[in-house]
Design brief:
Elements (H helix, E strand, L loop, with lengths): L3 E2 L5 E2 L13 H23 L4 E6 L3 H16 L3 E2 L7 E6 L4 H20 L4 E6 L5 H10 L5 E3 L7 H10 L4 E3 L20 E5 L1 E2 L10 H5 L3 E2 L2 H13 L4 E5 L16 H9 L6 E5 L8 H9 L6 E3 L7 H6 L6 H14 L4 E8 L6 H14 L3 E6 L17 H24 L5 E9 L6 E6 L4 E5 L8 E9 L3 E6 L3
Parallel strand pairs: 3-4, 3-5, 5-6, 6-7, 7-8, 9-12, 12-13, 14-15, 15-16, 19-21
Antiparallel strand pairs: 1-2, 10-11, 17-18, 17-20, 18-19, 20-21
Length: 489
């Protein structure tokens, strides 16, 4: 069933319904529903005579990956065992909507699940994440995908157990989409993918409103977590064996501006650096418009902040950047890069670039190629422009023909790879610290890890090396990754 919606877009359970008699303090309330769901799962386990399994499938960014760890933690707490495939008792898709292709993947997977569920009617299917914040998606689900049990968005993921409990108690599709929220609820169960590294949300939402981007509409306005809560979480992670943290936000440079006691991102990094046990600090993503001199100085002086900065360009044309509402131009971006490289000479710079933005001319595209050549990125995420309904760019009439955009995309990719190969080759023969992340999936005699600058390294080793930072001699460069050997100290 669809829940009633209040004026602010939140669910109203009513006086006679679901919320009555349950704890009202949010964290206590969600643990109450975790326990209630656990009882439902246990009853179903006894009925089927076997454990129940669940699969969380993640689309999109690191923020979504971190959200999925929270979903997995709650599923484990209520008694589901992790499934290897989507042929499970519970499947949840944590969706992305940055590009149309991401939406299409979800629709395709749902078609498969519909067939599977017809033969397994007890199965539950849930959808959450950014794609669910689009009204046209909800309309399509109501019309053509009634077999889905639970639908919620980006603002109320912490209510997962509560919503799942409702799904256990009532038949039909339950939909709970909020337009926005000012609430941040952490300290719920989390199941990390890696025991030795973890993402940490420091803020949510985005205020930038780039003309092509749907994120501010589906993630809401910027909300920063209190620094003391972030530090407490990271200290707990460190005590649990985590050696690397990734601080996450749509634009970390804006962190702290809306707090009662404002604090800058640079100041937060200095506090995180003091935490014993944390050896590496990463963050994502930085917007070029407000990357401060203080942040550069803190990175340059740090012994723990990795020498890697993701600095989205999007376009090298100042005219297109203005159309995109990026609030910087080509020269400003290049000056910023020079400032960063002067302070941190060996820093790895990665970026995002969009090809085929409405109105982009060959001259505009050449400006982008020029920036790629001048900067020499270590790698780049390159995208064909994807029209997102509801954004200003989608309404523009001068859309670039697909054939022209693809031809430019291929030329860009060639240049990016050429520059990245130069940067990578320069590391051959050096000895660098590498965090070993896993036994190699293709070759069990190798382990795979990452350098500070985010390059991947494969080397001989075993399970006992996973989670450790080891010195590795880089023997051979293969473009975007290396083969190496551990060096005994």
């Amino acid at each position: 069933m669809d829940f009633n919606q209040t004026e602010d877009g939140k669910t109203d359970f009513g006086q006679s319904g679901f919320a009555k008699g349950h704890p009202q303090e949010e964290l206590e309330r969600q643990y109450y529903f975790i326990e209630t769901c656990r009882q439902y799962v246990e009853a179903e386990r006894k009925r089927l005579g076997r454990p129940l399994t669940a699969k969380v499938v993640t689309f999109g960014c690191q923020m979504n990956a971190r959200d999925s760890e929270k979903l997995s933690g709650i599923l484990a707490a209520i008694g589901y065992e992790k499934a290897d495939s989507e042929e499970a008792d519970f499947v949840i898709y944590n969706t992305c909507t940055v590009r149309e292709n991401a939406n299409n993947k979800v629709w395709g997977r749902l078609g498969y699940l519909n067939t599977y569920k017809k033969h397994h009617p007890h199965m539950k299917i849930a959808l959450c994440g950014c794609m669910m914040q689009e009204p046209e998606v909800i309309a399509k689900l109501k019309k053509s995908y009634r077999f889905v049990d639970l639908v919620f968005g980006t603002h109320n993921i912490y209510k997962f157990a509560e919503l799942l409990c409702r799904s256990f108690e009532e038949k039909g599709m339950a939909i709970d989409i909020w337009e926005d929220t000012d609430k941040i609820v952490e300290d719920l169960p989390v199941e990390r993918k890696y025991p030795f590294k973890s993402g940490v949300n420091i803020m949510f939402g985005c205020n930038n409103f780039c003309s092509y981007c749907i994120v501010p509409y589906v993630r809401g306005r910027e909300r920063s977590r209190k620094p003391e809560d972030i530090i407490k979480e990271i200290k707990k992670l460190a005590s649990d064996g985590v050696v690397e943290v990734m601080l996450l936000g749509q634009n970390v440079n804006s962190y702290g501006k809306n707090l009662e006691n404002p604090i800058t991102f640079a100041e937060l990094l200095q506090e995180v650096e003091q935490i014993e046990g944390i050896a590496r600090i990463r963050f994502m993503t930085s917007h070029p418009k407000d990357l401060s001199d203080d942040l550069i100085a803190v990175m340059a002086a740090s012994k723990k902040i990795c020498s890697h900065l993701h600095l989205p360009l999007q376009s090298g044309s100042s005219r297109i950047l203005k159309e995109m509402n990026r609030r910087y131009g080509k020269e400003q971006y290049l000056n910023l890069v020079q400032k960063i490289r002067t302070a941190i000479p060996e820093i790895a710079l990665t970026t995002d670039i969009i090809v085929g933005y409405p109105g982009e001319t060959e001259e505009d595209f050449q400006e982008t190629l020029d920036v790629v050549k001048q900067v020499g990125y270590d790698s780049a995420f390159t995208f064909l422009y994807s029209k997102r309904t509801g954004t200003p760019a989608a309404a523009k009439e001068d859309q670039v023909p697909e054939g022209i955009a693809k031809e430019r995309f291929n030329r860009l990719l060639e240049e990016v790879q050429r520059q990245a190969a130069k940067r990578a080759n320069a590391w051959t023969g050096r000895v660098v610290p590498v965090l070993i992340e896993e036994v190699n999936e293709q070759d069990g005699s190798l382990v795979t890890g990452r350098m500070e600058n985010n390059f991947t390294v494969h080397l001989p080793g075993g399970e006992d090396m996973v989670g450790k930072i080891v010195d590795v001699a880089l023997k051979e460069c293969k473009g975007f990754y290396f083969y190496g050997e551990a060096v005994s100290t």
